[in-house]
Amino acid sequence: MTIKLYGHPASSFTLVSFFILKELGLSYEFIQTTTEQIKSPEYLANNHPFGKIPSLNDDGFQIYEARAIARYLINKYQGTITSTVLIPSDVQKAALVEQFISVETSYYIEPLIKLLTQVMVINRQGKELDPKLVNEAREEVEKVLNVYDKLLEGKDYLTGEFSLADILHIPLTFYAINAGEGDLWNKRSNVSRWWKNISEREIWKNLVTEHKLENIK
């Protein structure tokens, strides 16, 4: 069995793939790609037709898109090496995981990317931040986190148990908090407890150290 993961260690979606592979106890080869490489005819033909990352090759089977990669790896390898359960076999519990993956995709990630565009990307480019856009982005994130705080009442994780849904939230949230926006999460008790639980998993802490993620601001 040979698993090859193509991506970049700073990419939030590549980090999700790292996380899944490590939670499942899988060995893999990582091929770091550049912006030029992912636009090449070879990469477009063999890895990802839209020139994005990550993509994964499992002994000749090629798949792209982080959430699809995660589901594939879980469906094939969950329980074969480690006891970690990221999508339960119980139909209703699995449905709740899918529900919160949809919530993350539909409501969480978009306002978070808007905020990160201001506090990380534009700031890194040396451009002057627009206070109005920053505040608008923060307000959007606040609205989402207010709902999350209610959803997490009495729970340590989104579905009650650690799952793929929690993992998908980690990289971008880490980048936002690392960029100085931690108060948005910390001032909500249920959200704060949830973030502490998911961000202190040993695998994530090792990824932060291995790829020096705290230096990315």
TrEMBL record:
Ranges for domain GST C-terminal: 90-217
Enzyme class: transferase
Catalytic activity: RX + glutathione = an S-substituted glutathione + a halide anion + H(+)
Gene Ontology molecular function: glutathione binding; glutathione transferase activity
The keyword Transferase appears for this protein: yes
Enzyme nomenclature, EC number: 2.5.1.18
UniProt keyword annotations, A-Z: Transferase
Xref: InterPro entries: Glutathione-S-Trfase_C-like, Glutathione-S-Trfase_C_sf, Glutathione_S-Trfase, Glutathione_S-Trfase_N, GST_C, Thioredoxin-like_sf
CC annotations in GO: cytoplasm
Domain GST N-terminal per the UniProt entry, residue ranges: 1-81
One Pfam family, short name: GST_C
Gene Ontology BP terms: glutathione metabolic process; response to toxic substance
UniProt similarity note: Belongs to the GST superfamily. Phi family.
Name the record gives this protein: glutathione transferase
